[in-house]
């Protein structure tokens, strides 16, 4: 005979078990919430730029990104840096880094010149005071840790000027400096006598198109490539030594570069069109270099690849712009993650490796269901969208075990926990 228990029935709410040191404002897996910052970027507008109405929009909307500086504080900080496209040549190039400190929950600025530099004053990318032109940064921002020669709170590296006539160089911003704090990263590359220039072709062309970069903690340096024609994918060591490798992909169209640490794979993901006059299958390709053996393979992806409403030719829902997703591998999650703004509201997507043979078998695209955390009272109920795409503003923060991104001078950033 069946037994019926008379024990009382109850519901137990499980606590939000976070790793040690993670603040209480980070939601549990499957949720997103606002980062409870105490001020807004518009509150820290440098006096130098208060007459420029869109100055604090630049880090968020002018085709740029961010990097996480782990040395900035106990929880680290997210540093945004982007600009360009002044309304007139008589206006200053808006030069500063914008910092969100996860320990103090305060926004601040650094690297501000003491006087304005108008757009026409820059020669080869530098103003008379030797400060660099603040460019479109796209996927070209990375961390230079203190242990690798960065500043006391870490430094921000900006890998050359996207889509500009200026020669490719790596600029460094010591974010502990309120004023100035800029330097040029000294590099050494075969066939290149100038110690601050970098190039991706065998000829003399030292002007890249759009930077795609990724940091390598194991090898202590950065991998760098460009979207467009290239002969080389570069490894730039912390000491500035550049090693040239055959270009991964070679002629990427709106691609991204990802380092899968646990798998020891460097991956370039291509973009492109699935229909129309420029149709092809490149948007499903992954170009893989096994960093242990040096072997290179090309594989395909399964699942639904994020697609914009229309591409450069206006040919309909056919353009897969993978560089704009902020793609990055996270060892803790075992997959590549990005923010898909081809849908509204945006959705988090992941690209998951197969159970075996990740360098030779198809990876799979899928969307990740997320909810607004009920504990985030008054917070944004949907994932926010960035004007002119997300690029590297969507970043994994190791100390938080979560992603954080900001999109506007008058909105709180959001934290996303998978």
Notes on the structure:
The structure is a single chain. The protein has an 8-stranded mixed sheet with strand order 15-16-18-19-24-23-22-21, with no helix packed on it. Strands 25-1-28-27-26 form a 5-stranded mixed sheet, with no helix packed on it. Strands 10, 11, 12, 13 and 14 form a 5-stranded antiparallel sheet that branches. It is mainly β and 418 residues long. 46% of the residues are buried. It has a single domain, classed as 7 Propeller (Methylamine Dehydrogenase, Chain H), CATH 2.130.10. It contains 1 helix and 28 strands. The model is unreliable at 1-15 (pLDDT under 50). The N and C termini lie far apart (45 Å). A hairpin with a 6-residue loop joins strand 22 (335-340) and strand 23 (347-352). The chain is globular and about 55 Å long.
Please tell me what the overall shape is.
globular
* End-to-end C-alpha gap: 45 Å
CATH-defined fold name = Methylamine Dehydrogenase, Chain H
- Please identify the oligomeric state: single chain
The helix fraction, in percent, is under 10%
Give the secondary structure arrangement, pairings included:
Elements: E1 31-34, H1 58-61, E2 65-69, E3 77-81, E4 97-101, E5 106-110, E6 141-144, E7 155-159, E8 170-174, E9 182-184, E10 210-216, E11 221-229, E12 232-237, E13 242-246, E14 251-252, E15 256-260, E16 265-269, E17 272-273, E18 285-290, E19 296-302, E20 319-320, E21 328-330, E22 335-340, E23 347-352, E24 363-368, E25 371-372, E26 395-397, E27 402-405, E28 414-417
Parallel strand pairs: 1-25, 19-24
Antiparallel strand pairs: 1-28, 2-3, 3-4, 4-5, 6-7, 7-8, 8-9, 10-11, 11-12, 11-14, 12-13, 15-16, 16-18, 17-20, 18-19, 21-22, 22-23, 23-24, 26-27, 27-28
